[in-house]
Amino acid sequence: MDAMKQFYVGLAGIIEKDGKFLVLKRSPDKDFAPNCWEPVTGRLEEAENPEDGILREIEEEIGIKTKIAMPVDTSFFYRGSKEFPMVFIVFWCKYIDGTVKLGWEHTEYKWITPDEAFDELTLDHFHHMFKRILKLKEHLPTDFIL
User: Fold this and answer.
1) What is the dihedral angle through the alpha carbons of 74, 80, 81, 87, rounded to the nearest 10 degrees?
2) What are phi and psi of 15, to 5 degrees?
3) pLDDT tens digits, the chain, 146 residues: what are they?
4) CA distance readout (Å), 2 to 5, 54, 78
5) C-alpha–C-alpha distance, residues 75 and 87, integer Å
6) Is 126 left (phi over 0), alpha (psi -120 to 50) or beta?
7) C or N: which end of the chain has fewer Cβ atoms within 10 Å?
């Protein structure tokens, strides 16, 4: 029997504010997907709960407060090579307070409509997640976690 292999847990927070979603442009210095647009992403730390992990990543990376609406996607992929297997959990988050402050990991940010998200080709890995959020919103009460 093969030994159980270690894997990493990646997290993403698709943050919504007033019907728009926050996306960040990755720095050209990033080793994976440089210059691509993405929601806030990061990795789970040892012994950390995924919900706590994404809230920590959002606050560390861009300095705003959010709350989690719900998880909207899970997946598995190899980040770069088979040496870096990753389980990925995506959360739909609602903006609460603060001003976006960029660090070295990102060069730009913008709040975009769902249509703009679908038009942005470097967000293509996240398109189905935006679609899932829009579908969920069709079935949720209008006052859901405002």
Assistant:
1) -20
2) -95, 125
3) 566 678 889 999 999 999 999 999 999 988 777 899 999 999 999 999 999 999 999 999 999 999 999 999 998 878 776 777 889 999 999 999 999 999 999 999 999 999 999 999 888 889 999 999 999 999 988 777 64
4) 8, 32, 19
5) 6
6) alpha
7) N
Are 72 and 14 within 8 A, CB to CB? yes
DSSP-based three-state secondary structure for 139: helix
Q: Residue 129 is which amino acid?
A: M
96 lies in some domain: yes
- Look at residue 3 and tell me if it is in a domain: no
Residue 113 exposed, middle or buried by CB count within 10 Å (0-12, 13-18, 19+): exposed
At 133, the amino acid letter reads I
Q: Please report which residue ranges of 8-49 form alpha helices under DSSP H.
A: none
Q: Tell whether 140 is covered by a domain.
A: no
Report the domain count for the chain: 1
Beta pairing partners, 13? 40, 91
Boundaries of domain holding 19: 8-126
- Residue 26: give its domain's CATH number: 3.90.79.10
Q: What's the residue count for the chain? A: 146
